[in-house]
Specification:
Strand content: 35-45%
Distance between the termini: 169 Å
Number of strands: 31
Structural class: mainly beta
Shape: rod-shaped
Helix content: under 10%
Largest sheet: 5 strands, mixed
């Protein structure tokens, strides 16, 4: 190689080999490597192909700037485990960016544990993702919490499989269009608005309320409120299920209302119309045990058949030889009362039929004809 030295008062120097420029300090005091001053402008150190720096001979650390083929790359080939990792950018004497041998990138830390690891020394946001004239999403930390979200007046969306899964709107409301599985306890300190709610699982699963009263309330937009109230005592007034508004309740079986509880306090079984009775049974009612009426009983309509013995006036056992027993010390048995003409109008009387004849004021019994019961 031939060296050419130009005195200090000369504004250009060159080192040449085989007739080609290797290094030039041009009149603008730029350093050009494998270039002529006419090839490029504006930068103080210009290298045509690569620039490499070797740390030492015994522990080589080569930093190469490669701009060949129009692709720029900054390459570190340091190996081993020194104080400094293979590649670092320092600002103010402190490492600002670190790339380790696993290609993890650290910002604010010299020991990145994942592909991108940022570390800050005070509460705040570690980095932002910003769209010009749009939303800003930040990831931040403090001594007690971690947080992620928008820093602008925009909702935060969660996307899975390139499809919108859920949204936190700007008011903090959570909107999710798919199933939600909660493996632990769900606590709701305010109201829940839902199109449908399904709870499934083993028989041990339950809805549990806490406090002095466990209350579950269901309300629609019209204000009709259905409530399940489990109180602290065994009293019916402290434990109840039903409406808190003046609305009827239907019991649904096979998607059809078969029983109805009305706001009037009346109950209909087998229908949905309030007939005005406390209990209205449409169909056949069966009683397999005692039936006790503490007030007047009115039976009308179709004939009634009693398939067992009947005792009136007492709830004690009926006398075994009687099919009908009337018990009273203040009243008597009143038989049907009718005139002779009404008696004779009875169709197909059978032997033993008994009436009181108001025409003759006699007790009449039918044998093969009507006969009067007399004292003689």
């Amino acid at each position: 190689m031939t060296d050419f030295f130009v005195p200090a008062n000369v504004v250009s120097s060159r080192w040449m080999t085989s007739g080609s420029d290797m290094i030039e300090i041009d009149t603008s005091q730029r350093v050009l490597v494998q270039l002529l001053s006419s090839d490029t402008t504006g930068i103080n150190l210009v290298v045509k192909d690569q620039m490499g720096v070797i740390n030492s001979i015994t522990n080589p650390s080569v930093l190469t700037l490669n701009i060949s083929g129009g692709v720029s790359s900054l390459i570190s080939t340091k190996t081993g485990t020194g104080t400094y990792l293979p590649f670092a950018i320092s600002v103010g004497g402190s490492n600002a960016l670190q790339i380790d041998t696993s290609q993890n990138i650290g910002m604010g830390t010299t020991a990145p544990s994942v592909k991108l690891h940022t570390k800050i020394g005070a509460d705040g946001y570690a980095f932002y993702v910003e769209r010009s004239s749009g939303a800003i999403v930040g990831v931040g930390v403090s001594t007690t919490t971690g947080k992620i979200g928008t820093q602008t007046n925009h909702p935060l969306q969660v996307v899975t499989n390139n499809t919108l899964a859920s949204t936190w709107d700007i008011s903090g409301n959570f909107i999710h269009a798919h199933s939600v599985t909660i493996s632990g306890t769900l606590t709701v300190n305010s109201s829940v608005t839902t199109g449908s709610l399904m709870a499934s699982g083993s028989s041990a699963n339950s809805f549990t309320g806490t406090g002095s009263h466990a209350i579950t309330t269901f309300q629609n937009a019209a204000g009709n409120t259905f409530k399940i109230h489990l109180g602290t005592t065994s009293a019916a007034s402290d434990n109840y299920i039903g409406m808190t508004t003046a609305n009827n309740i239907g019991i649904l079986i096979n998607n059809t209302v078969t029983h109805a509880l009305f706001a009037t306090g009346n109950i209909t079984i087998g229908g949905t119309t309030d007939a005005g009775y406390k209990l209205d049974v449409i169909g056949t009612a069966r009683f397999n045990n005692d039936v006790i009426f503490d007030a007047a009983v009115s039976l009308h309509g179709l004939p009634m058949t009693i398939f067992s013995t009947l005792k009136v006036g007492s709830i004690t056992a009926i006398t075994s030889c009687a099919v009908l027993e009337c018990v009273s010390t203040t009243t008597g048995l009143l038989l049907p009362r009718m005139t002779t003409a009404q008696r004779d109008a009875i169709s197909s009387p059978v032997a033993g039929l008994t009436v009181y004849n108001t025409t003759t004021n006699k007790l009449n019994v039918y044998t093969s004809a009507w006969e009067a019961v007399t004292s003689a």
